[in-house]
Amino acid sequence: MSLSDVLSPFSAWKNLFRDPVTIPDPLNDRPGAPRYRGFHQNDIEKCIGCGTCEAICQNAAIDMVAVAEIATKPGDSGLRPRIDYGRCCWCALCVDVCMTSSLSMSNEYKWVDHDPDAFCFIPGVDLKHWDSSELGYRRPEGHRLTGIERVAMGELEPEVRADSFVEIVAGYDLEQAKLEADRCVSCGLCVATCPTHMAVPEYIATIRDGDYEQGVRLLYQTNPFSNVCGRVCTHRCETSCAARHEGDPIAIRWLKRHIIDQVTHDRIKQIAAEGRVSKPSGHQVAIIGAGPAGLTAAFDLAKAGHGVTVFEALPAPGGMMRYGIPEYRLPYDKLDEDVDVIRSMGVEIRCNTRVGEDISIDQLREQHDTVLLSIGLHQGRSTRIPGSEHEDVVSAVELLRRITFGERFDVPTTVAVIGGGNVAMDIARSLARMQRQQHGQVGVTLVALEAEDLMLADREEIDEAREEGVVIIPSRGPRQCLIERDALTGLETVHCVSVFDDQGRFAPNYDDSDIQIHDAGLIVEAIGQAADHAFLGESLTEALEWERNRIRIDADGRTSESWLWAAGDAVQGPDVITAVAAGHRIAASMMEAFAGTSAQTH
Amino acid sequence: MAYQPDRSQYPSRKPDGSLDIDLSSGKYLKLWQGPQHPGITGNMSVELTVCGDEVIEGKTHVGYLHRGFEKLMERRTFIQCFPIVCRICVPEPDFNEYCYAAAVEELAGLEVPERADWIRTLILEMGRINSYLMYLGGQAGALGQGVIGQWTTYVRDLMLDRFEELSGARIYHMFIMPGGVRDGLPDGFDQRMEETLREIESTLADVKDVMFTNAVFKKRTVGLGYIDPAIVDQYGVTGPTARAAGVAKDVRRDQPYLVYPQLDFEPVVGQDSDVFARADVRRRDLLMSVDLIRQILARMPRSGAVMAPLPNVLHWKIPFGETYIRGECSRGEYGYYLVTDGSGYPRRVNVRGPSYTHAMALLERLIVNCNISDVAALMVSLHTYPPEIER
User: Fold this and answer.
1) Which is nearest to A321 in space by CA: A218, A223, A456?
2) CB-based contact B310 A21, cutoff 8 Å
3) Of the CATH numbers 3.40.50.300, 3.30.360.10, 2.30.40.10, 3.50.50.60, which one belongs to the domain with range A284-378+551-594?
């Protein structure tokens, strides 16, 4: 203790002469820091309602709620996050996890209201004065909580695959699949988009858990064609995937294939048969056409104990999956596996049985309670340009069918393909392979009406076709097939300025001065297909209601005839998964019709 | 000049060693200090038995703030635990964030970028300063010196501003995330931090003049709450409380973590082990943190990643494992014991808050024979934050 111990404390008096350190008007003079985690903002145009914010919120402060002015559409659930400030702890994990970066926080932190319920609000919908705030917490660049980039799929190199029909895509191995499955945020936007509403997040979860049998179980709940769809599905699910907003969507199609690849065929059959009704119901169903729609309906009906007979005109079941899709995209043995599971449900498939020739539709009607028409589109459409009646001008579907049959026909050194869709790519790439096998070089020219960026084929199909040597020329309209001394020599095309008119109708506009000649010993038309309804017979054709050359069906797939349903490309299109969805719907509709009615005696 | 009790007033002991206190004798009085009492550290209470103005026995009671964080975490995914751990210690939340993140990172095998380690160290030292500033105000306040608290609150507020611009929040920063930290330093941060540090140094000089060079403060605190260095380990005493007893324990030096091995510092040690010595150690430790922050800002990398690439946190599973992560917080050794079982949730999280040992067993020992007017100062000198007692 010293004198300074007594005097020194009085130095505190010096503060009497200092200015106060407090802020006189903190409500106005004290904005939050630029990174401040204040009240939420949500760009509702950007928000897709995926609900990852709701999933990550540890306080359960966020609920996804329907908003009147926002419609549900593919890739947007129509829901928006409602935040309860009675629960929120301002951790901003919702901002960090937001898949579109629509959610952010302003630097505003003052809010006075006499109504406690006001603090439960939908940012961006319930307008607030901080909605336009530029400052506040945003997810820092590169700060991601939902995993890494899409795992690249192993594929055969162009030089290896160009002359072979071996499957191009390698499939994920276990580690790759786990990594890819890890990226899924389980939002379920894909489920809503998928025509048959496959349980995508759930089956992807089985990959993470390594429970592949459960994965197969989930796949078979909605889709008996997982081998097929795991390879060639148009994967609209991936276009609505939340991950696509900041990178590549989850490779849902490849993950589906991965699951089915991991389980033995015998085990798949056992799993698919779980819940099968073994006691016959007595009802008999005839299905015309063993494509995806028909076989899916057959699977469901047979599993429920109904007798199903499928009549197929071609030598093997599968429809367009077999006769339209080249082997390098969908190996036949994989299709056979899916069909075999369906057969194992007790479905009888009679191949080489063309209704109308081998058996009449009236006979079918007499012998069965209900009939499903799922005949597909197996007639190629013609351009009807001059010279198109020449025997070397053929339709793509016919040629693809012949390739599937294993016919060894000679492909000329030059081929022209008309069309810019996936069928055109399929035939161009198939013929290119055969040319390479027969002549050692490729001479396929593909002309499409649409401009490069509007072509209907998948981007990867176009790129891969080019890699394999196919010359793709967009914006060309076919004018005539050139024939010299009865031999086809080439295709003349003109520049196509626009495909659609102002009203969006198909009305190509050509520039006739821009003419090109493409050498071609064979011209393949791949501009669309039609159904062959001739077998229906006059009276039935009369009786049915039609809609632009298609049989009119209701939402359940029923035609105007009470015993007849129709599905597949012939009435709906455009892809396997839509056909599968229709198959399920029709099976359910038929079973509903069976309920309460006793089986006919046949 | 230790307090000399009048032993004649003392109760005798029963055969089992407990005090023989006959409340009906009129000699003793039961008195509750807390849970609502200005002279109590947070939400706890001490059940005092006094004889005159001398404490004969003190029993600590906790549980008023029990929110069950450890249990809450068992039902939250690993990322969801991140926003709640900070709430285990209000004035210095960052140690929870760091220890939890480091435990998760170790078990999940994440490699934290170096820049993140520097920023984490910076944040922990900033938090330490805040905690000490709050303590100094409390220690002086417990002895009636309200002005110190006003000064330290002012500079603490400046530091909160730095926290706000760095992390986006003032109290619960939620900035140290498993994998790294959320972001780098904002533009101009160094300069504003330097201004804040200067203000802190100037305020601390005033505090030294008014609080530490003060006959009243010395009279009240010197000799009060003496902790025998021999019982430091026995009672699990750590941090400044141990260092004031001359035991140079400092996790930053003894079990180095983050970038402490690259920093230049020596643990601040005191001698007398009383309330005054503890306050002085903390004051000097605070100045050391100021120095450490300057070192960090001068040497930290300014570019590069601040987060390790994380797996998808929505279904993040961590393999079987257990680990204990420790760090030196302003009260002593802070630790997280984490057990994982391969699922997406922690199997067990145990938080070792230094207040647990200091505020319960140690206080019950020190409080005996203490004058009732010194109880508050004694408790504050143990620097207790009750939430970390009742995780």
Assistant:
1) A223
2) no
3) 3.50.50.60
